[in-house]
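--- STAGE predict ---
source: upstream dedup step, 1 unique chain passed
mode: sequence only
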Amino acid sequence: MRFIRGTFVDTPAAGKLRIRLDHVLVVDGRGFISHVLPFSDPTIQSALALAPASAAPDSHSRALTTLPAHTFLLPTFADLHIHAPQYLYAGTGLDAPLMQWLDRYAYAAEERVDADPALAERLYARLARRLLEAGTGAAVAFGTIGVQANLLLAQAFQAAGIRAFVGKLSMDNSPRPTYGEASTAESLASLTSFLDGMDALAAPLATHERLVHPILTPRFVPVCSDELLRGIADIAHARGVKVQSHMCESRDQMAWVEGSRGKRDEVVFDEAGLLTEHTVQAHVTSFPPRLVELVKARGVTVAHCPLSNAYFSDAAFPLREAIDAGVKVGLGSDIAGGYALPLQVQMRQAVVVARLREGARREAAFEAGEEAGDGKGLRVDWVEALYLATRGGKGALGLGGVFEPGMEFDAQQITLAEDGAGVGQLDLFDLPDAPGLEWWTETVERWWCNGDDRNRTAVWVQGRQVL
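--- STAGE serialize ---
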C-alpha cells in the first residue's frame, strides 16, 4: 500500500473542476486506488498509524509521501489519435492537401519504418519517452502495415510503462503500389498474425501489468474494400478487440469516398458493422445533426484533433454541440498531421477553435441584424478541455481518468513553484504557505495556459512511477 498526501485535481464531469486539498490517496499493490479521503478522516488516521513516513513516492511499502506545498497530482492525459511512425517527420509538409500529404510523407515514412526494424526501435523508444514527458500516459496509436514493426511499437510502449492500443494498419486498396496489401485475404491474415503476436506478448504478464492491447485499424474508407471492412468487424466481434479509423475528415477525402462508393464515410462504416461503443473515429469535422445522432446512438467516441484539423480539414469540429449532445469525445494529437505531441497544445487549441467559432457565429448574427444572445454559445472553456484530455479520453478506453476508488492510479505530478519561485514559464508572485481553494483554481488555470514539461516532475501508470 502507498499513501500520498497533498492536493488532487481532476474533472469528474465536463465543466466540473474538482480540487481536493489535504487529502490522502491510497494505492494498492496492483496499482489501483483504494481510498481518497481527507487527511483528518478516521479511516486514514487509523491506516497511517501503521505506516512509516517516507520521502520515496514510488515506494511499495506502507509509507506516507507528502507532496510539496505548491504541487498537485492530475490524471495522465489520453491521446486518442496518434500515428506513431509519423513521428519520424512531425512538422513537415503541412501546406499540402490531405491526400497529397499522405502520399508524399505519411506512406513513405511508414514504408521506411516497416523496412528498418532498428529505426523502428529507436523511433518508438523516443516517442514513448516524449509522450511521458508530456504527461500522456495512454495512447491510441496507428502503426504501419507490417506485423514486426507494430510488435516493436507495442514492446516499446510496454517497456516505457505507457498504456496503449496499437493498431496494425489494414489497407487492401492502397493507391501506392509499394505500400499496401495485395488482397483482402492477405490483409486479414496479416491482421490475425498481429493479434496472435500481441497475445503472445501479453501472456507472461499479470492482468494489471498488461498495459498494451491491439486495436483493429482500417486506415480509412478510401484504402479499404467493403469486404475488408466486414472482415475486420467479424474479427472485432469474435476477439473482443476495439476499432479505430478516420471518418469525415476533409472534403477531398469525403469526395473520394462518395465518388467511388456512392455514399458517405459513416454509411460505409455502419453497413460494415464498425460503428459501435468500442470504436474510436478521428476527426468527424463534417458532423451534421443526423450524424451526431448516429454516433451517439452507436456509442462511438470521436477523437477531436484541433491542430491537424486546422491544416487538413475544411471545417472545424463542432465541439460545443458534440459535448452538449452527449457524444463521447476525447482529444488526439494526430501526429504528424498535428505537429505538436503534447496534449496540452491540443487542449489550448480546442478552446481557441471553439472561441473562433463563437466569434464567427456572433458576427454572422450581427450582420444579419439578429441578437447573438448571451451565455457560452459555441465556446468551450479550459476546464472542459481538461476533461476531454483526461476523463473524456480515458472513458473511451474503459479507464477511469479520475481519482476514485477502484480506478487505476495513473497520475502526473505538477510542480507549480519551488524555492519561493514559479517553475518554468510560471512567474508566480504570491505563494501562500497553505494555499486555499481560490489560489489553487486560479493557479491551475495559469499552469494550463502557460505550463510546460518543466512543471511535470513525475508520472505514474498503474501505480508505477515511469518518469
